[in-house]
Each structure stands twice: as structure tokens, then as C-alpha cells.
Amino acid sequence: MSFYVNRFTGDARPHFAAWLKRGGRYEPMIRAKLRAAGLPEDLTYLALIESGYDPNAYSSAAAVGIWQLMTGTAQGTGLRVDWWIDERRDPVRATDGAIRFLGWLDQQFGSLFLAAAAYNGGPGRIARGLKRYADSLEGNSGDEAYFALAETDYLRAETRDYVPKLIAAAIVAKEPARYGFTDPVDPPLAYDSVSVGAAVPLSAVAKAAGLPLSVVRDLNFAVLRGMTPPKGRWWVRVPVGSAEGLDSLVDMLPKAERTAFKTITTKNSTTIKTLSSKYGITSRQFIWYNPTFKKSKSGQVAAGRTVLIPTAAALAGARDVPDPAIEKYGSSRRGATHVVKKGETLGGIAARYGTSVATLKKLNGLKATAIWPGQVLVVRSRGKKR
Questions:
Q1: 8 Å CB contact between 264 and 307
Q2: How does residue 197 score in pLDDT terms, banded at 50, 70 and 90?
Q3: Which of 130, 155, 175, 244 has its CA 20 to 30 A from that of 375?
Q4: Rounded Cα gap, residues 70 and 334, in angstroms
Q5: DSSP assignment of 316-339
Q6: Where does the pLDDT of residue 371 fall: very low under 50, low under 70, confident under 90, or very high at 90 and above?
Q7: pLDDT for res 381
Q8: Alpha helix locations (H) across the chain?
Q9: Which residues have a Cβ under 8 Å from the Cβ of 190 and sit 6 or more positions away?
Q10: CA–CA separation, 85 and 160 (whole Å)
Q11: Would residue 131 be called left, alpha or beta, if left means φ above 0 and alpha means ψ between -120 and 50 degrees?
């Protein structure tokens, strides 16, 4: 633990200072949600060590957001993660998902230290470790079991050091002035929301509200393509005091400014490159609005295909981000997980993921087939790909 205190206040000081500054924006919201969920408020520092409170953080394992959630885990906690929306990038919604996930892990292992270790190294690995070392861990329960397990050579160094790193971050962040961190932090996140229709550019919302696009964009990190989803209404966040009557103001804008794309049907066989060039966009931007072509190797577009051509209004607020569906199991710290829902069985889950009950039991250290809603199961180990 002292190693990380010295690191945060030494070589890593500039980074830690930036994390503390950004934390001023999100920490009050996170603490309030943790408090409402009956969890220790100091779990906010998990987001600090995971991402430095960066909503756009993206790891080599394809974990995203301030809580560094994988797609499957996020979706299992109720977050929307698809081609148009990625709520892992939304600090508020991602916090809801992470708290739900941590609560389930705490319920599963009976210890927040074990839950934190499972958050980092995977619940299956922690479960198997507790089973493997059951004899030597006898008499240790809860947090004591974590420290006893950490003394073995079972956990990877990153997971073994995760809780000490979390504690060290809390020690420094709770008394920053004591360690020489005296710079002011960002003001707390505050916003109003307005419900707008489908496929409305964020730039249209900004213009109707008389705001810079950057302000609206930075309140809506989850919106990936610069527009609300193509189907259904969506709540767009705007600065406090900006929401009243904004939906009507958006509707009053010229059609060109509130249109995100036009739909065309190809008359002849063509290519993505040719179509993109014709409409003044790049091939990459074409893919942003036509995800069915994202895996196309030939780049061909057959005659009679209906495609979307984005407008400048949509492109102005679009984000160039990796495919949200990516889950790099081979390098993932957590493997692929599944959150058990009411009525599910181990056999049904095994069939869904193309594996066996015996494999699931082995991955998760289960002695029986009984499972319960909210339990987090590993369904693929690190090193295996879909």
C-alpha cells in the first residue's frame, strides 16, 4: 500500500493531480449513488484507479468508460451498448451499472475486498481460488479471506495489488492537501434533460439552445454518431436551465439543420469508396451510419441496397470510436461474464454461450448447478475468443 502512496505522490503525481481535478466533476454524483445503494462511498476511488475518471477511457481489453466495463458485463447490468449508444461512456449510467455489478459481487463473495479483486481479475478466478485454497483459508472469511488468498501465488500481481492500490488512492485523495495536491478541482456535474425525437443531431440541439456543440457533446458521451438513435425518443442532456421549451425550438429549426441523414437506394452495384466520395464523406464515416458494412472486405455495395448518408449536422458531433461490440477475451482482465437473470438455469446459460455445464462449473468454482439472479458467472476464460 505504501508503494502506491509513494507512487501517486511521486512519479505519478502529474497524472494523479489530473485525476483528482476531473474527479471533482463526477465524485459527488458517484458518492450519492453509492450511498443510496448502501455501499461504501470510498468505492468511488475504484473509478479513479480504473480510468482517472475519464468517460472516454478505452483499455487494450476493450473495457470502456470511467468504470472500465466490458460490453457483456455492462449489458448484463442494464446499460445500453450498441452501435448508436454506449452508456459505458455516460458517467451517470455507467455508475449505475458498476454499482449494480459491485453489489452482485459483494453478495457473491461476502466481502468488498473480494468483490474489488473480482472486478479486476474476474469473479470466476476468485471463486476458483477460494475453492482451491479452501483448506488453507479455513477460518478466514470476508475481507480476511481476500488477504489470505492474496498471500498465495494464485492471483496475478495486478489483481493481488488491486485492493492495496485502491486503499492507497483513497488515503491520498481524501486528504489531497496533506500530500501537496492543492489545485482546484472541476465543478460537480450538473445538467437538465430534454426528450427529443429519433435521429436528431446533437448540433441541432446545441443550435436551438444557443450553445456551443462542444458543451452539449460533452454532456452526452454515450451518443456515438452525433445524433439520437434512429428509432425512438432520447433524453439529451443540456446545461441547467436550458431544457425548457427546447424540444419545440429544435422542431423550428430549418429541416437541413435537424436532419441527421438521408436514405438512398443504390441503382447499380457500386463500392463504399465510390459512394462516400460522391456524397463528400469518408469511407469510415459511411460505416458509422451503415454498420452492416463494417465487416465488408470487398467494400462492395450491391444494387438495390438502402444506405444512410450522414449530413454535416450529424457528422459535426460524431465520435470516432471502436466498435462497441468488441470484446477482446484474449487480453481481457475479466474474461466474458454473464449476469444471471431470474428464471435462468446453468444449462440454459451454457447452451447460449456454446459451452457445457461442467465447463461453467469449473470456470466459476461451483460445486452444484444452483445459481441465483444477480450472480456473475464467467462464461469464457481469458485466452479464449468467441
A1: yes
A2: very high
A3: 155
A4: 8
A5: TTB-----TT---TTT-SS-EEEE
A6: confident
A7: 61
A8: 2-9, 13-36, 44-51, 71-76, 91-109, 112-121, 123-132, 143-150, 157-160, 162-174, 202-209, 213-217, 246-251, 272-278, 283-289, 312-315, 346-352, 357-364
A9: 239, 240
A10: 34
A11: alpha
pLDDT tens, residue by residue, 264-296: 999 999 999 999 999 999 999 999 999 999 999
Name the grid cell of 313. 449536422
Compute the distance between CA of residue 79 and CA of residue 293 in angstroms, rounded to an integer.
25
Q: Looking at the DSSP assignment, which residues form a beta bridge with residue 237? A: 193
What whole-number percentage of the chain has pLDDT above 70? 96
First to last CA, the chain: 37
Question: How many helices and strands, by DSSP H and E, does the chain display?
Answer: 18, 8
User: Are 69 and 88 contacting, i.e. CB atoms less than 8 angstroms apart?
Assistant: yes
Domains in the chain (CATH in brackets) are: 2-55+90-179 (no CATH), 192-257 (no CATH), 261-310 (3.10.350.10), 336-380 (3.10.350.10)
The pTM of this model reads 0.89
152: pLDDT strictly greater than 60:
yes
State the chain's mean pLDDT as an integer: 92
Which residues fall within 8 angstroms of residue 180, CB to CB, at 6 or more apart?
9, 13
Give 251-259 contacts, CB < 8 A, sequence gap 24+.
252/208, 253/204, 253/207, 253/208, 256/311, 256/313, 257/201, 257/203, 257/204, 257/207, 257/313, 258/200, 258/201, 258/204, 258/313, 259/199, 259/201, 259/311, 259/313
Q: What is the dihedral of CA 338, 59, 128, 133, to 10 degrees?
A: -150
* Residues 76/338, Cβ–Cβ less than 8 Å: yes
Average pLDDT value for residue range 102-116: 93
Helix axes 123-132 and 357-364, enclosed angle (nearest 10): 80
Measured CA angle at 89 (ends 276, 181), to 5 deg: 125
| DSSP-derived secondary structure letter, 343 | T
Overall size of the chain counted in residues: 386
Distance of alpha carbon 168 from alpha carbon 112, whole angstroms: 16
Quick one: pLDDT band at residue 366, thresholds 50, 70, 90?
confident
What's the CA gap between 193 and 242, in Å, rounded? 8
